[in-house]
Amino acid sequence: MKILYAPILLLFVILSLLFLLRVLLFKTGLIYITKKWWRSIEDCFHVYQFFKVPEFNENMQKNHLYCEVSIYLSSIASIEDSDFINLFTGKKPHDIVLHLDPNQVIDDYFLGARVSWINEEKNDTNRCRTFVLKIRRADKRKILRPYLQHIHITSDELEQKKKDVKLYINIDSHEQSRQWRSVPFKHPSTFDTIAMESDLKNKLKSDLESFLKAKHYYHRLGRAWKRSYLLYGPSGTGKSSFVAAIANFLGYDVYDIDLSRVLDDSDMKMLLLQTTCKSVILIEDLDRFLMDKSTRVSLSGILNFMDGVLNSCCADERIMVYTMNCKDHVDPAILRPGRIDVHIHFPLCDFSAFKTLANNYLGVKDHKLFSQVEEFFQTGASLSPAEIGELMIANRNSPSRALKSVVAALQTDGDGRGSLNIRRQWTDNSSRKSTEDSGEQSGVFSKEGVNAMKDIRKLYGLLRLKSRKNSESFDRMPDSKDGQSCGL
Ligand SMILES: Nc1ncnc2c1ncn2[C@@H]1O[C@H](COP(=O)(O)OP(=O)(O)OP(=O)(O)O)[C@@H](O)[C@H]1O
Ligand SMILES: [Mg+2]
């Protein structure tokens, strides 16, 4: 028995010792000291090369690479492991930026290799600052160039995100040489706030992301690095909000071209010439403009703007967005691939979009009235997300009242764009008037809802009147209830 006890006791002692050692290493700084020793021993077996990135060049001009490295190092996770870090507030509220303290070292990993950065600062009169990259000679050939490229791209993306986005609008350019005026772009719309089929939303996000990375691909093909989107659908379905979401997502400035202020085709070219890269160029309601015979810009002016020679010279890194209520009567030359790469349909609200709006506007994920709302959508009643959103905002203090208003509005079927059956069903119903008046139908039909709907129609009435003809033809399209369609 004693013989059996001995190995068990020994095992127990070893395990306890290991446990104690682990506690000792992790609870104290011993683990870091051990790691440091190990690194110094490892360093003895490698040959290193050092690359200096000084803050200023020999003419005392700022070295742009120094700024890029500084931005890049502030973003990598290992900066938090450094012994001394400086904390600064960033440009945006609640933003905290980490900066490496002078003479601190941080590690970074790239393509399986480890590199180190030293923030060298000499305390002489010039206070010359330099980042020193320490890289194993064996890894240099494999990683140096792609690593510097990686720093360039990452810092560029980070800067882009931090940048304040601007909205440019074109002004009458009789005497002015500068045709654009800018204001800060503060539209709060993001991809999260847009009610849209989630698959489509993700596809669009990844389409934008892959566009950003495709510079060399486009140039290899001899094409301008631009992507064009057509957003089409009835009024109040989120087209303009989606443009804002794109700009916020990419951190791109928006150039909103008001075609009625453009003097002629050459003025249109000048406008394009004066846009900067990393921007969204937007033309709203293009269909209406094309149908207007009194305009000063010709169809060929528009076609050249979209995909002409000038475009291939100076439309690099731009997203072009055109919005329309209906694309049925638009010249196919405008819609051809190259001029428009992706077509995105913005339909009237369906039940899934309604749920997103209810969640966003009222914070309601589920409610007993949802089943009634769903039934109305199934029978073909429909409102635009803008109309539903307004009803929800007006009743945001009482989700039940808000949902009742939506049901009531769906019963009257917006302005009659949904199924005719449901309207007939209600008009034929002899008891309808009395129930409307008493506000008791199914416990949800309230005067409030109808009145609210009337108010909203007043707001939207003007726009509707203008776009009615287009919307009607659009709404008859067989896919108008199928969710957004996209040529991705
Ligand atoms: N899909 C949506 N998701 C979230 N909010 C929406 C959506 N569609 C519309 N809205 C809301 O409705 C309002 C109007 O939307 P927006 O101006 O984007 O519509 P639009 O399609 O551009 O209309 P129009 O064709 O009349 O210019 C905005 O305040 C927006 O918040
Ligand atoms: Mg709009």
Protein model, in words:
The chain is of the alpha/beta class and 488 residues long. It folds into three domains: 44-162, no CATH class; 166-345, P-loop containing nucleotide triphosphate hydrolases (Rossmann fold, 3-Layer(aba) Sandwich); 351-481, no CATH class. It has 19 helices and 13 strands. The strands form three sheets. Strands 8-7-10-11-12-9-13 form a seven-stranded mixed β-sheet. Strands 1-6-5-4 form a four-stranded antiparallel β-sheet. The protein has a two-stranded antiparallel ribbon with strand order 2-3. Strand 10, helix 8 and strand 11 form a beta-alpha-beta unit. The protein is extended. It starts with a helix and ends in a 13-residue tail after the last helix. Residues 418-450 and 456-488 have low confidence and may be disordered.
CATH topology type of the largest domain:
Rossmann fold
Q: CATH top level of the largest domain?
A: Alpha Beta
Described by strand count, sense and barrel closure, the largest sheet is:
7 strands, mixed
Give the oligomeric state.
single chain
Shape: extended
Summing up helix and strand content along with how strands pair, one would put the structural category as alpha/beta
Main-sheet strand order equals: 8-7-10-11-12-9-13
Which superfamily, in CATH terms, is the homologous superfamily of the largest domain? P-loop containing nucleotide triphosphate hydrolases
Cofactors, ions and other ligands in the entry: adenosine-5'-triphosphate, magnesium ion
Distance between the termini: 75 Å
Number of helices: 19
- Cα gyration radius (Å): 31 Å
pLDDT < 50 runs, ≥5 residues: 418-450, 456-488
Q: Into which percent range does the helicity of residues fall?
A: 40-55%
The number of strands is: 13
* Whole-number total of structural domains: 3
Strand content: 15-25%
- Would you identify the CATH architecture of the largest domain? 3-Layer(aba) Sandwich
Average predicted confidence as pLDDT: 80
